[in-house]
């Protein structure tokens, strides 16, 4: 059996507003029930100035004028609610009652809390008010009070008589109490009764139709929610049924079809609500459903076939038959509510009990099992039920919302957690990278020491050991060692690969050295970028080539001017060192070692290296491809 | 007016060379020397020099302590640190302690004299690598994270204690431009550029003191 998931959806999270809502529904019902009973409204605390007539005489007569006193009047107590004589479909009645008028201070108003069948109202034989009543052409049912002024001239001191002529097609004769009193009180009561008998029913009907339509739309969007669909249908059926029932005047031509529609919707509602209740309480029973639906359709079909003559049986037996089905469903839902014990189920059970109570009341009133005014209350039960359902829907919605929110929250927490993880792993990666970079750097420095300053120092040492070196040569060699060390130190910047500051440092060192020798030294950067990111290895070798070239000029070229130009292009760094010295060819031999060094270093960094002769002087051009990075 | 120079250097050869260079010029007068930290402190206490040349690698007291002492005791003096490589780590440390110049141990005599002269005239030397390091110190990490190379002069993302011009100068220096080139770019003399550098050094010293105070306050060493 499929569990009705929504019955459980509000387990613990019923909002306080919902329970307040349910309680207020209860109050509303109580109040309305009290107000609806004219006995309570006007009779419990009788106002001195209002006369209530509850003794009357009536007679069955088609006469258009008041039948004679000896025509066969019977005395009755109002409200008069007894089965109509069978045999005739339309029965015409006269009711009359007498009342005393003491003085004529204030005009009297006559109030019929219920004049369900309509009628012409006379006072002392003069017509004072009329509401259409059933005749050969129309069928009527007025669910509203009536209030008319009795023209003072019609009244005289002492005993007066009020007479009502009406026709009844319904199975029961129904005639309520008559109240006489001043306008102020009468109108107030009238307004109150009008509101509860008429306005509330209209509001309830509109509400049912609207909500039913809305729920059906909802169901169309979520067809898997069968319970919603069923409930929507229930509400729609109820709305239609109330609409039909409360149509005050129906032409006889449509009376049959109207009645059929009424039976169909009323019993359809009962069928649907019974099945709904069973499903809600998790006791869906296919056999029960089939029997019930069969009973419903069979009844309607029988009425269609047999016509109005079958009406009596329809109402007396067929409609009553639903009560047993319905009671079973109600019992199921009450047991379910008691067992589940959550507010949703309990409020649902309560609403159903209220609705059931009201419907039993209506049945009792209709069938005249009790001597109560013919006031029907069921239309108030349905909105209560509807409110509970809306509450349930709202709870479900809020539940879902909460779930979504909590899911979002969880997701956010997870994302945040993942972010932290990512950050951590990123940091770890950075740490590793740095460690790796440091290792690389150590390797590089070692290699540099080996290739550069180490071997230079060693060769200087060898030279000094085996030959008498002139002091200037020794100084020059040692200066080269120191210069190389400076280059290595300058390029020790693992966190930043920008070559510009390193180049700048070199430039300043060289500028001051050339300046102290009174040589002109010009350095120009052309189109340099904001930062020249380059592998430290390439940078260092570039600087070494530069240094070697400048050292050669200092040592051998006898130049007076040296120019360094650095050209930057996106994929190429070109360095040109030009002097105005004695030229390359004249000193080929002595420059041999330096030249070899420079070529080797250029090859290492995939740079093109060439030497050219100038007039006068020499130029060294180094082209370093930058896409090697 | 003769500039009085005192030298604190433990290597006797360097000391005598520096002394010789100072004494060779009529502009300068050599007024005392010390070969270790303790004597150096005493020298600073007893002899008011216009310029102190201090070696960092003294046998007993770290040169940084001496620089701090000298700057504190004689606010009008200039302190130059003597360094072999002028590597940024050592130089920055000295500047933060209050030194406003540095001098290479193998500088020519001309360089040495020029350096002290510039210093007395209100300027300071700087190398691009040191400029870069100072820039990094003023720019909080957020700036260094900036992925895209900034056009020309990058906007100051975090407020630094430097003026806009000082910042511009520092940035240009870090990119390898000479004082002359920077002067030409901003229509100022290269002397003015040198003076900007000295101001930057002073700001860095104050800045680092502030940072030290901040750190100490945070650690509860100093009460607020």
Describe what you observe in this structure:
The complex is a heterodimer of chains A (629) and B (224). Chain A is an alpha+beta fold and 629 residues long. Chain A has 3 domains: 5-43 and 204-398; 51-181, Jelly Rolls (Sandwich), CATH 2.60.120; 495-625, 2-Layer Sandwich (Heat Shock Protein 90). Chain A is built from 14 helices and 19 strands. Chain A has helices at residues 5-8, 16-36, 38-43, 183-221, 226-245, 252-280, 286-306, 311-340, 343-366, 378-466, 471-490, 499-516, 536-557, 588-604, and strands at residues 51-53, 55-60, 74-77, 80-83, 91-101, 108-112, 119-123, 126-131, 138-140, 146-150, 158-168, 172-175, 178-181, 249-251, 520-526, 561-569, 572-579, 608-613, 618-625. Chain A has a 6-stranded antiparallel beta sheet with strand order 3-2-5-11-7-8, with no helix packed on it. In chain A, strands 15-16-17-19-18 form a 5-stranded mixed beta sheet, with helices on one face. The longest helix of chain A is centred in the last third of the chain and has 89 residues, at 378-466. In chain A, 35% of the residues are buried. Chain B is built from 10 helices and 5 strands. A 5-stranded parallel beta sheet of chain B has the order 2-1-3-4-5, with helices on both faces. Chain B folds into 2 domains: 3-120, 3-Layer(aba) Sandwich (Rossmann fold); 128-219, no CATH class. The interface between A and B is medium-sized, with 25 and 22 residues.
